[in-house]
Write a structure and sequence with these properties.
Elements: H1 4-11, H2 13-27, H3 40-43, H4 52-63, E1 69-76, E2 82-88, H5 96-102, E3 106-110, H6 119-133, E4 144-148, H7 153-156, H8 182-195, E5 199-205, E6 213-217, H9 225-245, E7 250-252, E8 255-258, E9 265-268, H10 277-283, E10 287-293, H11 300-320, H12 322-337, E11 343-351, E12 357-362, E13 370-377, E14 380-388, E15 392-395, H13 400-408, E16 414-416, E17 420-434, E18 445-458, E19 463-466, H14 472-479, H15 505-508, H16 512-518, E20 529-530, E21 533-534, E22 538-544, E23 552-554
Parallel strand pairs: 3-4, 3-5, 5-10, 6-7, 9-13
Antiparallel strand pairs: 1-2, 2-4, 6-10, 8-9, 11-14, 12-13, 15-19, 15-22, 16-19, 16-23, 17-18, 17-22, 20-21
The structure holds zinc ion.
């Protein structure tokens, strides 16, 4: 169904007439640079960013001049703005199936997820013109490009100034796990898990001057190592070389940190959480990249150019190395599907890469100048704990919310057709702490658990999630309760009354009876008294460690 928004623009007689005139000019080869569509920011000589209605006008103007562009309505924001997915290719592919059959790699560019970070929005609009009408047209013979010009138009439109979050204050780049916004639900549900792009870029304003653009690949070691190595190696070098050919500085995200005690410098980054784009898509076996310009204050024209050139450099590399990229991604997917990943990583700590690098910091003595120092690169993340990967997870057949969460991530969930008696690993809660302030409308929960084995009868209707599947790495992160973005941490079991063990009576003087009166909700399994001490809850999510044969049906 057409939304009122797009129909409005299509019905705009002025636009249609104008576009028709340009098509005639284009067909006769008479389009000159001056007649090409201009973004709102360009028309305003960069005194402001391109407004939403200007953006919509512009993308349809460009489409009216090319055979290589299709536009899909992706979703509608809470304030009623249509979010568009643009498909570029020669020929353009309207569906994931045709993209797959084309044999070409597919790159997804998502701009402006933080509404106030406009560099990618403006640079992307310019890149669109280059790809559809300009000198980058030949790239479309070798790659499919999926392009979302603004995933957060509501945030970008806030007054008096654009905001990071959407109109409800959600930080949409923290929504990849629970998908509570329409916009990120659409990115995950309609783009990532349908098209399975090979490369997924998210454009932001962050990083550190004097670098015009900083770059980060999935940092979580759960992501496939060879896929990350390609992105950290030849892909990084190619984008850097392209940027430097345009006199633009390029480095890793995000910035310098100084040790106050030793005075030593290190190049650090931000926490790699799966709820963020560049971790999430890595867990889904894509090359996931952050492109961060300094800002958002400062020279919007330069920021747009930096994003445009960075994204162009990336597209050029993908076009020239399509075979390598596709084979690397396919190998990563195969390893995941075959269940070759044998560990679940539970916590992460930043460590140094071997050796040192040189980078720029603000010159302490000269205002507005930079000086080069040498330091370590503290962006290598190692697990603080590991657990053997389960063959499959089993959880209570009443936990539909968890089953649905997994299915929205394209993780296959089965339902047992008849009971199975087996030994499973269970989690007993040893500590449970709810956050002291709300986060994205949640009071997040961190638990620590101990794993123990027990005989169990899994009733008919129990949900089963096998690890050896495309979403297996993500499934483990969601179902092991003590990861940072588990279903348990996002409150999916709060309603069942998770309890930590009570302190031993000799520490508090409280009797077992007293403890029982304060515990309002019956414990879900466990909660037994042992020597006057209440044990922590046993969670209704189990691990099956040894392959078994089961009768089960995959949920539709
Ligand atoms: Zn951002």
């Amino acid at each position: 169904m057409q939304s009122p928004t797009s129909m409005h623009y299509l019905r705009s007689a002025g636009l249609l007439t104008w576009a028709a005139a340009i098509v005639l000019l284009a067909c006769s080869g008479l389009v000159t640079a001056q007649e090409l569509p201009q973004t709102g920011a360009e028309k305003a000589d960069w005194s402001r960013h391109t407004g939403y209605e200007e953006l919509v006008d512009y993308i349809f103007e460009v489409q009216g001049l090319t055979d290589n562009m299709l536009i899909r309505e992706l979703t509608v924001t809470p304030e009623g703005r249509t979010v568009f997915l643009i498909m570029l290719g020669d020929p353009p592919t309207a569906t994931p199936g045709t993209a797959w059959l084309s044999g070409k790699p597919t790159v997804l560019l998502v701009e402006n997820v933080h509404g106030g970070e406009l560099s990618g929005r403006e640079g992307g609009l310019q890149l669109l013109r280059e790809l559809a009408l300009g000198e980058l047209k030949p790239l479309l013979e070798k790659i499919n490009v999926l392009y979302i010009p603004s995933i957060n138009p509501d945030g970008a439109n806030r007054q008096p100034r654009p905001t990071r979050g959407n109109s409800h204050g959600y930080d949409m780049n923290r929504d990849y796990v629970v998908m509570e916004t329409a916009e990120i639900s659409a990115v995950v549900g309609q783009v990532l898990t349908r098209w399975w792009p090979d490369v997924h870029v998210d454009a932001h304003n962050g990083g550190s001057a004097p670098y015009n653009l900083t770059y980060q690949v999935t940092l979580d070691p759960s992501a496939d190592g060879e896929l990350v190595a390609l992105a950290n190696g030849p892909m990084y070098e190619a984008v850097k070389a392209h940027m430097e050919s345009q006199d633009l500085k390029f480095f890793w995200y995000s910035g310098p940190r100084q040790n106050r005690d030793t005075g030593e410098w290190a190049w650090g980054t931000t926490e790699p959480l799966v709820r963020k784009q560049h971790s999430y898509s890595g867990f889904q076996n894509m090359i996931a990249l952050l492109f961060e310009c300094p800002g958002p204050r400062g020279d919007l024209e330069l920021q747009a150019r930096s994003q445009r050139e960075g994204q162009e450099g990336l597209l050029r590399f993908v076009a020239e190395n399509g075979g390598l990229i596709r084979s690397t991604i396919m190998a990563a997917r195969r390893r995941t599907i075959e269940g070759a990943v044998d560990q679940v990583y539970l916590g992460l700590e930043a460590t140094d890469y071997p050796g040192t690098v040189k980078f720029f910091i603000r010159d302490p003595d000269r205002e507005g100048e930079y000086t080069e120092v040498e330091g370590t690169r503290k962006t290598l993340y190692r697990p603080t704990g590991t657990r053997q990967r389960a063959w499959a997870y089993a959880f209570d057949g009443n936990l539909h919310d968890i089953a649905n969460l997994l299915r929205r991530h394209a993780i296959e969930v089965e339902k047992l057709m008849e009971p199975v008696a087996i030994t499973v690993q269970k989690y007993r809660v040893t500590s449970a702490e709810w956050a002291d302030r709300p986060y994205q409308n949640h009071i997040m929960l961190s638990v620590e658990v101990e794993v123990f084995e027990e005989e169990e009868i899994l009733e008919a209707g129990t949900f089963i999630v096998r690890s050896a599947q495309n979403g297996g790495i993500l499934a483990a992160h969601l179902l092991d309760p003590d990861t940072q973005d588990s279903a348990v941490s996002w409150n999916f079991l709060d309603h069942m009354g998770i309890r930590a063990p009570s302190p031993p009576p000799d520490q508090t003087g409280t009797t077992a009876q007293g403890q029982q009166r304060t515990g309002a909700v019956p414990a879900m399994g466990g909660g037994r008294q042992r020597g006057g001490q209440r044990q922590g809850s046993v969670l209704p999510i189990y691990r099956i460690m040894t392959p078994i044969r089961i009768k089960a049906v995959i949920l539709p």
